[in-house]
Amino acid sequence: MAQLEEQVARCTVQLDNADKLIGGLGGEAKSWQETVEALGEQLKAMVGDVLVCAGSISYLGPFVASYRSALVNEWLAEMDRVKMLHSKDSSLAKILADPVVVRQWNIDGLPADNFSIENGTHAPLPSPLLTPIPNPNPNPSSVSLTLNPDPNPSPQP
Predict the structure, then answer these.
(1) Which of 18, 31, 80, 109 has the smallest CB count inside 10 Å?
(2) Domain boundaries, the chain
(3) Whole-prediction pTM value?
């Protein structure tokens, strides 16, 4: 009889635990559904967002923040006119920048403005204009000679 009561108590605990687990998973179903909907919206807007990123990387690098913003706003208005889907906050910083990396940049001293973050996303990209030129004379003592503006320096007494 004691063994039967022990099994009943164990089954009651297991049923309570199963009920809690099912209740907890029911809340997760809503979270998963919201995530699926958000990812679906991002997928629909991907072409427009990638177009903004490609244009930003290709054309906006040398310009100041205000001009960059004005051009992106013009692009977004034109995309709206032709009914091309894009995110409301479509920008290079929002789409390509990893929030964890951006946070580390901020900790390291990079300003948290959009312009600085966009410039930071450009930094890791290879550029033919930033190809290092090897120094044929890496000796530090020769550097002072190459910086002398006089092509024929007089010897020191």
Answers:
(1) 109
(2) 10-44, 47-123
(3) 0.59
